[in-house]
Amino acid sequence: MTTRSPVVDALPDAASLRRPVGRRLLWVLVLTGGLVVVSVASVAFGTRDVSFDEIASAFTGGGGVGEAAVIARVPRTVLGLLVGAALAMAGLTMQAVTRNPLADPGILGVSAGASLAVVSGIAFFGLSSSTGYVGFAIVGAAAAAVFVYTVGSLGRGGATPLKLALAGAATTAAFGSLSSAILLPRVDLLEVFRFWQIGGIGGATWERVQVLLPVLAIGALVCVLCSRGMNSLALGDDVATGLGEHVGRTRLVASAGAVVLVGAATAVAGPIAFVGLVVPHVCRMLIGTDHRWLVPFSALGGAILLVGADVVGRLVARPTEVEVGILTALIGAPFFIWIVRRQKVREL
Fold first, then answer.
1. Tell me, what's the pLDDT at 14?
2. How many domains does the chain have?
3. Where exactly are the transmembrane stretches of this chain (predicted)?
4. pLDDT computed for residue 59 by the predictor
5. Under a CB-based contact definition with an 8 Å cutoff, are residues 87 and 222 in contact?
6. In degrees, to the nearest 5, what angle opens at C-alpha 254 toward C-alphas 252 and 256?
7. Which of 66, 165, 272, 289 is the most buried (most CB within 10 A)?
8. Over the chain, what HEC string results?
9. In angstroms, rounded to a whole number, what is the distance separating the alpha carbons of residues 172 and 157?
């Protein structure tokens, strides 16, 4: 009797790759509509609610008491869309590259590596520009990804879901402790980055969006170009090689795209976990496992989830707000347990 792989249920099969195009397009339209709804809600709701007439007036230059609130919330909404899309695409890519249904930038310690690099750059190198944050974060994310995959690959069986998850959890805890140790003696920095370490988009500015946009565009383009190769990787290394896929190169390039997305997103929003875990699995259930569709579809889903969570965080604790990183953790932790049980990851 043959033993099924613990991740076999997350891999593409012929039926899912042939999922009707009409159904996929329908879901794309549904998610596009959802994106519009959460974007409008993000601009309209907050400490002070803004009417739709005031929103229209702000965009047409008509003035009004709500114009300042609208102007302040638009860059926050755009940043949330970009960060959510980036984290979802990165999570999808990591799951495809590692063939691990539990892969996520937060779970595997990649976000923690980016955070530690930014904190170290600020404390020891006087880092102050958004461009510097992004550069340091990408380097830190890359180093953490290599470290976790190396540790998870040690021993018998290679990089199993259990060993990667444990290596990622240990790395996240260690990097988080190091970040705290660096910040604690520096009270001025600790206050500034206390909420950043939780993960949030409250400090959004157009300058941050302008720095983030081209970097995310590069990372997203790499993931899109590797989508066909990700389909091959999901069939196994031997089959992928037989299909003419250069397995090592595809893994390296796709991983680089994911690292760029995670590093840039973490640099401006902090380590936001579970978006890259929840969204790809939901998208697979809706449109199948063809990565040529999943990559852009996950981007839409991630944007909706993050901006929607940000809106909820503003409404549940007014006049203050709950950071979006807390809400995504509340959503993602039960989902993580459900995925472990559903995928029957025996090692766990």
1. 46
2. 1
3. 25-45, 77-94, 106-127, 133-152, 164-184, 211-231, 252-273, 293-312, 324-341
4. 67
5. no
6. 70
7. 272
8. CCCCCCCHHHCCCHHHHCCCHHHHHHHHHHHHHHHHHHHHHHHHCCCCCCCHHHHHHHHHCCCCCCHHHHHHHHHHHHHHHHHHHHHHHHHHHHHHHHCCCCCCCCCCCHHHHHHHHHHHHHHHHCCCCHHHHHHHHHHHHHHHHHHHHHHHHCCCCCCCHHHHHHHHHHHHHHHHHHHHHHHCCCHHHHHHHCCCCCCCCCCCCHHHHHHHHHHHHHHHHHHHHCHHHHHHHCCCHHHHHHCCCCHHHHHHHHHHHHHHHHHHHHHHHCCCCCHHHHHHHHHHHHHCCCHHHHHHHHHHHHHHHHHHHHHHHHHHCCCCCCCHHHHHHHHHHHHHHHHHHHHCCCCC
9. 23
Provide block-wise average pLDDT over 10 residues at a time, the chain (348 residues): 42 53 89 95 81 69 64 90 96 91 88 92 84 94 94 80 85 91 78 68 86 95 95 86 87 95 93 91 90 95 96 86 88 82 54
- Please tell me the predicted confidence (pLDDT) of residue 346: 43
Q: Which of 145, 95, 159, 167 is nearest to 260 (CA)?
A: 145
Rounding to the nearest 10 degrees, give the CA dihedral for residues 35, 38, 44, 47.
-140
Residue 89 CA to chain centroid, in angstroms? 7
The interaxial angle of helices 247-269 and 67-98, nearest 10 deg, is 150
Residue 59 lies in a domain: no
Task: Provide the b/e sequence for 82-91 (b: ≥16 CB within 10 Å).
Answer: bbbbbbbbbb
CATH code, domain with 188:
1.10.3470.10
Q: What pLDDT was estimated at residue 7?
A: 42
Does residue 283 lie within any of the structural domains?
yes
d(CA 150, CA 98): 12
Neighbour count for residue 340 (Cβ, 10 Å):
17
Extract the tokens encoding 329.
């953790």
Lookup: tokens for 322? 């709950």
Maximum distance among all Cα pairs of the chain, rounded to whole angstroms = 72
In a domain, 259, yes or no: yes
Phi first, then psi: give them for residue 173, nearest 5 degrees: -65, -45
Radius of gyration for the chain, computed over Cα atoms and rounded to the nearest angstrom = 20
Structural domain boundaries, residue 297: 21-39+65-343
